[in-house]
Design a protein that fits this description.
The protein is mainly β. Helices cover 10% and strands 42% of the residues. The relative contact order is 0.27.
Length: 92
């Protein structure tokens, strides 16, 4: 059984304050995250090993965007997001 069957998957936009490394100006940017929330019960047809994996599974989100463009009209250069983690666990 695949891990994706243990979760509901959605896409969310979250606002983060990031600083452009080129011009040094801080702005708020919308970053896309893939949110995987654990289902209430294990999927049908799960055996003992799958149930054990389901018990250990935890809700989490993965950052989809790796690069953003600077919001400063004079700069507008793309920069990599290095200050945000690419994976974050959710507390339910």
């Amino acid at each position: 059984m695949e891990e994706r069957e243990f979760f509901h998957e959605t896409t969310e936009l979250r606002t983060h304050t990031l600083t452009c490394p080129k011009c040094g100006q801080a702005n708020e940017y919308k970053v896309t995250w893939v949110v995987r929330r654990k289902r209430a019960e294990p999927p049908r047809g799960a055996d003992q090993r799958d149930r054990a994996r389901f018990a250990k599974a935890q809700s989490y989100m993965v950052r989809r965007d790796d690069k953003l463009s600077c919001a400063n009209l004079r700069c507008r250069k793309p920069f990599e997001i290095t200050t945000l983690q690419s994976l974050a666990f959710l507390v339910d």
